[in-house]
Amino acid sequence: FLLKVTHMSRARIVRTGIAAGLLGVALLMAGTGYLAWTLVVQHTAERLETLARLASQRADSTVAQAAAALRELNRSPLPPCSAEGIEQMRLLVIDTLAVKAVGYVEEEVFACSSWGVEGHALEQWPEDLRTADGIGVSINVQPSVTSAKPMLALRDAAFNLLLDPEHFLETSLAPGVSLALGTPAGHWLGTPANGFAHFLARIHGEPHTALRDGYLYTRVRHANWQTVAAVTREEILRDLWRELLMLAPLALLLSGLWCWLVARRVRASLSPLAMLTRAVANGEFSAFYQPILDLRDGRCIGAEALVRWPRADGSVVMPEGFLALAESSGLIEAITAQVISTACRELGPSLASGQLQHVSINLSAQDVASGNFLPRLLEARQRAGIAAQSIWLEVTEGSLLSIDAAHRRLAQSREAGHPIALDDFGTGYSSLQYLRRLPLDQLKIDRSFVQSLSAGTPCPVTDHTIAMARQLELLLVAEGIESDEQLQYLRQRGVHYGQGWLFGKAMPRDEFLAYVASHHWRAAS
Ligand code: C2E
Ligand code: MG
Ligand code: MG
Fold it and tell me: Separation of 445 CA from ligand 3 center, angstroms?
């Protein structure tokens, strides 16, 4: 019932919950994607840097080895172009892995090489760099001794060596990985693949590690060389996919955990207690007023304020829908406070002007036990200019936990000027006890007795209650009058006041005030 009438706010809570769940999952997914991407880029950059460093080191050691061989030749006492000298050069080619040929230059003429006596004019190879120990290096020279691929030439005094660039560059690279070795000025060894050569030209002077033009690359400067290792975007995306698959279980677990937390939170906010707590905090409770008439002349003398919980969708929750929960959860005192201030504010002018004599307020067990309602009542009624006599207080037997405590509190209220009524009289087990021991002004005959009355058939319990009230000099109010027969019966026995659907149901303030204004004529009946 409670959940049905609160459909609107329930839908909003569910919507907010779904939004929070989806947002959390989206953020988690985005975070996982970002983490995977960062990890892949970081790992790949590290891998590329290692590769580039190794290539640089290998280049340095190859050049150093060749340089040592050159120095050895320069120191040799053998005449270079003699049979022994050429033999020595040939042995050097066989012994030194990267070296393909050795040459000797004499007076600007290419005199002999490891291939034999040459004797033709010397080709000019531009020097690309000079090592710390004074060896000149030319990159990509086209040797005259062979029409093969471009070579790396090293020169020390009259001797020179041709080195195979393949020994500088790793040949078994992982898929998508490219490697280039060159001078700091950007003169590259060998012939990089077409696209990669363009890329190398574009990144000249750029930062050391970056993502650019479909590659992730790392550049390493080492002694006389620069090495660039790069991997294509396709390869990185493949790694990213693998990384995502690895992180997926964790992301799914966290998403599940988040959804579970949100669902738990939503369930908790949808619980009747959570909704009631919110309603109390928002001051959502109001009062409807049921007319109480003087049965002798039919005048509406006042009203009983009955709490109502209006909902956003226009429905109204009746007390039976939330009072038990309010009492068990301790929220009832705050609700009573809202009813008190609403009733004083809404009926204040009519009570102050004397158009109405009173309004009855229902108290719960906790109100009576704590007495907190009294200062609130005082404040509300003073603000509205209402006399204490105009606010009647109703207590039920069930609402009195201990007669002694209740006695103290009710006596206090009575001293303040509020008449006290015992509500639903006759429905409890010990009504007579209460009657004897509590400071009371009125008895409200429960509607179950009134409803058992029908014309002509006297009800002994009702009759005795009426007689007893008269003896105790208590004012009598009959509840739940629904028919003329019941009204006549009660009237004949001198019951003073009555309320019930025969006169009017509980209604909002404006309707009630209109009722008071238009039902004066009933006095005539
Ligand atoms: P109650 O104080 O005995 O109030 C009378 C109840 O009987 C009201 O129900 C009223 O609408 C209903 N009633 C009045 N005339 C007739 C009739 O002719 N026929 C029938 N069948 N019913 C009639 P309601 O408003 O649902 O209130 C139920 C109970 O909730 C009240 O019984 C009262 O005990 C409690 N209550 C209402 N407002 C408050 C409040 O502000 N504070 C506390 N603590 N309890 C309240
Ligand atoms: Mg009542
Ligand atoms: Mg009652």
Answer: 8
